[in-house]
Amino acid sequence: MKQSRMLIPTQKQDPTGAEALSHRMLLRAGYIQQVSAGTYAYLPLAYRVLEKIERIIKQHMDAAAACEMLVPEIIPAQFWRDSGRYETYGDELFKLQNRHDTEFILGPTHEETFTELLKASVKSYKKLPLNLYQIQSKFRDEDRPRYGLLRSREFIMLDAYSFSADDADLDQIYKEMRTAFEAIFNQIGLNYRGIIGDSGSMGGSDSMEFSAPAAVGEDTIVYSDDSEYAANLEMATNLFVPQKSHAELEPLELVETSDVKTITQVTKFFDVQPDQVVKSLLYVADGQLVVVLLRGDQVVNEAKLKHVLEADSLELATPDQVAANLHVQPGSVGPFDLPAGTKVVADEYVQPLVNAVVGANQTDHHYQGFNPTRDLPDLEYVDVRTVREGDISPDGSGELQFTKGIEIGHIFKLGTRYSKVLGADILDENGRQQPIIMGCYGIGVSRLLSAVAEQQADENGLVWPTAIAPFDVHVIPTNVKKAEQVELATQITQTLEAAGYEVLVDDRKERAGVKFADADLIGIPVRVTIGKKADEGIVEVKIRKTGETVETKVDDLQNTITILAKEM
């Protein structure tokens, strides 16, 4: 392929507003171009990378007995109303109407669509299990799209859905898909971790997230420094080792605390450490009031809390909601004298506290001498705190460490979350109706471009792994006015292509320095430079990843590339 015949609008300077390394380099190297905030065109080089990624995905999906198909990007809004996600998904839904005022959404994901299709066509357990997938654009109206392809409003995604008659089949497909995803990411050349994930609005039980460590990642990966444990911060736990106190229990005493509202103010007023304070937070979970008790030096993990409460929606109450429901000002909320029906949940670190300070649920008052096991013997203790670096790993091996990561894939066991509400039933082997058991599996295909770039790009440009590079070899005659260079470039290109290599030839009438800078930006694994020694049949080979260069005779070029490629 001649470079002069391709649309590759490289840029010398970093584009304004591009913060992430991958965003800067994909723009500068002419791979993507912004069309509107959060939407991008994939230019020819990027499209070639995407095609190779999709080819790898399809290879391993075939091995997992998953069948490719395609459903409409436009979804009847009624599907999502029936599942309950139309409201809970929030403002990220793109909503539209046709000329007949029928409501639709642009699909951010397709659990409902696939479930409706199976509902209409599969009636017996004999037709299961099935594992179906598609690769298409998805749409989410991000409030603040950022980092290029990492958080965009339109993106390309693999979404797969499995349908089983029993849990054993679901477990087997879940295992096969995990193996397939790992093979895909390994072949692409990513550094990644499989971690415990949060299913979030997807619903379901077991969940594993695949995350690529990167400084720009918006997810926090929590891992043990001495074991295989790894989890998303939203789901991470630690080994709870209660510290037993032998202090004599003090009586519960009501204390007036005017203008004492924050943990800092409380600790100063009572002359105690934050870990001797219990803070009380009011939440609204699916319309129910929930008071959460947490040690003063710790932070609520709302994902964990949502799971504990089995809630579809969870919001921290506003000051107005606190006043209206508890008749107390924020800062004095406590677990006493609560309205009927209010649920109280205490983090497990609250249980061993002795003689702590807690809100009295009376404006400008706190209790000191609070002993949870004595004063509130019926409290429910659960893990709803956010772990911290240095905590003991939940398997007891090592301490927890944090790193940033990019979510590149996710697998879920959905169970009957969608089939029940949408009425997707089958007849089992005993002739009884039962809901289909489902799994869901996704890979951010376009996001993989950014993930690879974040991990492997350098200050000069992109560095593509061989498996997904847009071309294998970049042939550069330094001066196209010299016939011997052009002829040698043509000869080399024909020979390499005949051997199965994909070759990009820089036939542009540009200075050598411009060509080299663009070659580094574009990031093709091997560069063959044809210069002053062309008439001697000698060229220079450079490996983009290592920067290693060697001179070789044209007759030895293929062997040289093969040898050097082993080091990539």
UniProtKB/TrEMBL annotation:
A Pfam family this protein belongs to?
A: HGTP_anticodon
The EC number on file is 6.1.1.15
Asked if the Swiss-Prot or TrEMBL record annotates the protein with the keyword Disulfide bond, the reply is no
Tell me where in or outside the cell this protein is found: Cytoplasm
Name the Gene3D superfamilies for this protein. Answer: Anticodon-binding domain, Bira Bifunctional Protein, Domain 2, YbaK/aminoacyl-tRNA synthetase-associated domain
Output the InterPro entries linked to this UniProt entry: aa-tRNA-synt_IIb, aa-tRNA-synth_II, aa-tRNA-synth_II/BPL/LPL, Anticodon-bd, Anticodon-bd_dom_sf, Pro-tRNA-ligase_IIa, Pro-tRNA-synth_IIa_bac-type, Pro-tRNA-Synthase_IIa_type1
Q: Where is the Aminoacyl-transfer RNA synthetases class-II family profile domain?
A: 33-465
Checking CDD domains in the record gives: ProRS-INS, ProRS_anticodon_short, ProRS_core_prok
Classification via SUPFAM superfamilies: Class II aaRS ABD-related, Class II aaRS and biotin synthetases, YbaK/ProRS associated domain
* UniProt GO MF annotations: proline-tRNA ligase activity
Reaction equation(s) it catalyzes: tRNA(Pro) + L-proline + ATP = L-prolyl-tRNA(Pro) + AMP + diphosphate
* Assigned keywords, A-Z: Aminoacyl-tRNA synthetase, ATP-binding, Cytoplasm, Ligase, Nucleotide-binding, Protein biosynthesis
Free-text function comment from the UniProt entry: Catalyzes the attachment of proline to tRNA(Pro) in a two-step reaction: proline is first activated by ATP to form Pro-AMP and then transferred to the acceptor end of tRNA(Pro). As ProRS can inadvertently accommodate and process non-cognate amino acids such as alanine and cysteine, to avoid such errors it has two additional distinct editing activities against alanine. One activity is designated as 'pretransfer' editing and involves the tRNA(Pro)-independent hydrolysis of activated Ala-AMP.
Q: What is known of its domains?
A: Consists of three domains: the N-terminal catalytic domain, the editing domain and the C-terminal anticodon-binding domain.
What assembly does the database describe for this protein? Homodimer.
> Which PANTHER family does this one have?
MITOCHONDRIAL RIBOSOME PROTEIN L39/PROLYL-TRNA LIGASE FAMILY MEMBER, PROLINE--TRNA LIGASE
The family classification in the record reads: Belongs to the class-II aminoacyl-tRNA synthetase family. ProS type 1 subfamily.
Know the name of this protein?
Proline--tRNA ligase
State the gene name recorded for this protein: proS
